[in-house]
Design a protein that fits this description.
Blueprint lengths: L14 H5 L6 E12 L2 E13 L2 E7 L10 E5 L5 E3 L2 H6 L5
Antiparallel strand pairs: 1-2, 1-5, 2-3, 3-4
């Protein structure tokens, strides 16, 4: 299970709110983003949005490992920690040529 490792990291969605009563509109999405997790910007795939009473959360996978529970999370939407991949984002995620 994902947990932030530094103050600038993306915050996970509140589990109780995710599982709580009521309708939570869900939208599939396939977008390459950069996400601040594990203390740094990393490239990631945003696969879905969900609307909770407190705001939007995004399902994000930033790496694939043998452990299927590792390298992904439902994260609270915050433009400071989840951003669309742009030329500037390539540099921030250290993906530039």
């Amino acid at each position: 299970m994902y947990a932030p490792t530094c103050p600038a990291d993306a915050l996970p969605a509140d589990r109780a709110e995710m599982d709580g009563p009521g309708l939570h509109p869900y939208r599939a999405a396939w977008q390459i983003v950069i996400v601040h997790v594990e203390g740094r910007w990393q490239p990631a795939l945003l696969t879905a949005w969900k609307r909770l009473p407190s705001g939007w959360v995004a399902h994000v996978r930033w790496r694939t490992t043998r452990n299927p529970g590792d390298g992904w999370a439902w994260l609270r939407h915050d433009p400071a920690t989840i951003q669309p991949l742009t030329a500037a984002g390539l540099d921030a995620a250290d993906l530039g040529a």
